[in-house]
Write a structure and sequence with these properties.
It is built from nine helices and five strands; from the N terminus they run ββββαβαααααααα. By secondary structure, the chain is an alpha+beta fold.
């Protein structure tokens, strides 16, 4: 992306994958601290306020594509994602390592369909066996992101969208639970290993705290956090 190409504008809602729905508060000129040919040059940056975490992050316009930052989807795309929640894509793997890796990759890609897929997958899995803590956090984060984006896209209250999401998920979840009981399913998923591995690696929390690392890696001023705090106080 060219340094002068401004894809978003102030007051526009955007999706920051794994972080949430935010709003562009302003576009500013700052020195790019990343590596490469732009290092040390003045580059335009977006300031994005993320309501869910009450954070203000600063991202170079040149990095938005790499970070997956995108505009809110159309009403049609939002409705399609909502409808997809009731589609049975078959049984969910009991291999938590594979399942967690796949869903984290989807979260990083961050399309509305990817987020819906995570919600459907983990809801369906929860009807077979209670989700481990890290997967529960991932499910909650994905559902919150899906609710926020669809509510903005459709112009509906988030509480109404949450009810619509559950209405789409419940029939599929009931079907999965019924099959599990009928088949006397013996699941081998090891929740204790899951929790232990993820607590030590902090895999589930890494994305929640990635704003500062994203900013520094992509050339944002490392001292900007103080400025952001002052702006929040104002």
């Amino acid at each position: 992306m060219d340094t002068e190409t401004i894809e978003f504008k102030p007051n526009q809602r955007v999706v920051y994958p794994s972080q949430g729905v935010g709003v562009i508060t302003e576009i500013v000129d700052k020195k790019y601290l990343g590596s490469g040919e732009l290092s040390g040059k003045i580059v335009k940056h977006y300031k994005i306020y993320l309501e869910v975490s009450d954070m203000l992050v600063t991202v170079p316009v040149t990095s938005t594509e790499k970070l997956g930052i995108r505009a809110i989807v159309s009403a049609e795309a939002a409705q399609n994602a909502l409808d997809s929640l009731s589609i049975d894509n078959g049984p969910v793997t009991s291999d938590w390592k594979l399942r967690f890796q796949q869903n984290m990759e989807l979260m990083k890609k961050g399309s509305v369909d990817d987020i819906a897929n995570i919600v459907r997958c983990l809801y369906q899995r929860s009807k077979v066996k209670e989700l481990p803590i890290q997967e529960r956090k991932l499910y909650d984060n994905a559902k919150k992101l899906l609710i926020d984006e669809i509510s903005f896209a459709l112009g509906k209250d988030p509480a109404d969208i949450e009810a619509m999401i559950h209405a789409k998920l419940e029939p599929l979840g009931a079907s999965v639970a019924k099959k599990t009981i009928q088949n006397n399913f013996d699941d081998e998923d090891d929740d204790e290993d899951f929790a232990s591995d993820n607590d030590s690696n902090d895999s589930g929390d890494g994305d929640d705290d990635s704003d500062d690392s994203d900013d520094s890696d992509d050339g944002s001023d490392s001292g900007d956090d103080d400025d952001e705090d002052e702006e929040d106080d104002d």
